[in-house]
Amino acid sequence: SPSEFDYIVYDEVHFDSFTELCFYLYCKDNNMKIERCSESFTYVYENTEHTYIPDFKVNEDFYEIKGNQFLKEDGTWQNPYDHTQDALYEAKHQCALKNNVKILYSSDCKNYIKYVNSIYKNLKEEIYGKKDTKNYNRYIRKSFHNPSRCLHNTR
Question: Considering the entire predicted model, what is its pTM?
Answer without folding.
Answer: 0.80
